[in-house]
TrEMBL record:
Recorded GO MF terms: ABC-type amino acid transporter activity; ATP binding; ATP hydrolysis activity
Residue stretches making up the ABC transporter domain: 2-236
Main location: membrane
This protein's record includes keyword Nucleotide-binding: yes
Membrane disposition: Peripheral membrane protein
Gene Ontology CC: plasma membrane
Location in the cell: Cell inner membrane
PROSITE patterns assigned to the protein according to its UniProt record, in alphabetical order: ABC_TRANSPORTER_1 (PS00211), ABC_TRANSPORTER_2 (PS50893)
SMART domains the UniProt entry points to: AAA (SM00382)
Protein name per UniProt: L-glutamate ABC transporter ATP-binding protein /L-aspartate ABC transporter ATP-binding protein
Organism of origin: Pseudomonas panipatensis
Annotated keywords: Amino-acid transport, ATP-binding, Cell inner membrane, Cell membrane, Membrane, Nucleotide-binding, Transport
């Protein structure tokens, strides 16, 4: 579903991604982790061309993002993206947030878009809040709305960029529960997260990044089960993150 081939990226003289390659199969859940500044979020934003790449290629469901002929808005409409900070429209109601892209991008009718939006709100446990504005909801609720909004576009893959890092600890689980449910339903997912409990529960594979490189790319059982087989940098990371 996603093929990342020898991808490198620079900000001016600073190389933020260095020769990154990996694959994500249909229905697979891949967790991307690593220290701050390792390039995780940049990599995931490159998958739907929110960040341009200077070298290599990324192919999503048969479409190359590096091909000048690719219709990037059309591609992005099929790749669900959930950000750290919910990015909801504050002046629109929750229902309007869920229907606007369906109407403008997919060309759905008003009633069909509304029905779809309300069904997805129900799925994330927030149907009773359909009439409210984002500012009236908690952070965890807003992030669940953001997930529902991404799902309303019928994506072939879902990308999550640290979806719980801006939340109060009490709200983290309500968002992770929705993500676990999605994974169990077979959604192809690529998630940048520090939530190792989530990774252990649903990830098929774990990618560990450091200084713009993919240092580890292995099955979940191997990543967490054989610490001695991990790189020194991954061992240091896991020692810090798993002891708390």
């Amino acid at each position: 579903m996603i093929s990342i081939q020898n991808v490198s990226k620079w900000y001016g003289d600073f190389q933020v991604l260095s020769d990154c390659s990996t694959q994500v199969a249909k229905g697979e859940v891949v967790v991307v982790c690593g220290p701050s500044g390792s390039g995780k979020s940049t990599l995931i934003k490159c998958v739907n061309a929110l960040e341009p790449i200077q070298k290599g290629d990324i192919v999503v469901d048969g479409t190359s993002i590096a091909d000048p002929g690719t219709n990037l808005p059309k591609l992005r409409s099929r790749v669900g993206m959930v950000f750290q900070h919910f990015e909801l429209f504050p002046h629109l109601t929750i229902t309007e947030n869920l229907t606007i892209a369906q109407l403008k991008v997919l060309g759905r009718g008003k009633e069909e878009a509304r029905e779809k939006g309300l069904a997805l709100l129900d799925r994330v446990g927030l149907k009773a809040h359909a009439h409210k504005h984002p500012g009236q909801l908690s952070g965890g609720q807003q992030q669940r709305v953001a997930i529902a909004r991404a799902l309303a576009m019928d994506p072939v893959v879902m990308l999550f960029d640290e979806p719980t890092s801006a939340l109060d600890p009490e709200m983290v689980n309500e968002v992770l529960d929705v993500m676990v449910q999605l994974a169990q339903e077979g959604m192809t997912m690529m998630c940048v997260t520090h939530e190792m409990g989530f990774a252990r529960k649903v990830a098929d594979r774990v990618i560990f990044m450091d200084r713009g490189q993919i240092v580890e790319d292995c099955a979940k059982g191997e990543f967490f089960g054989d610490l001695n087989g991990r790189s020194e940098r991954a061992q240091q990371f896991l020692a810090k993150i798993l002891t708390h």
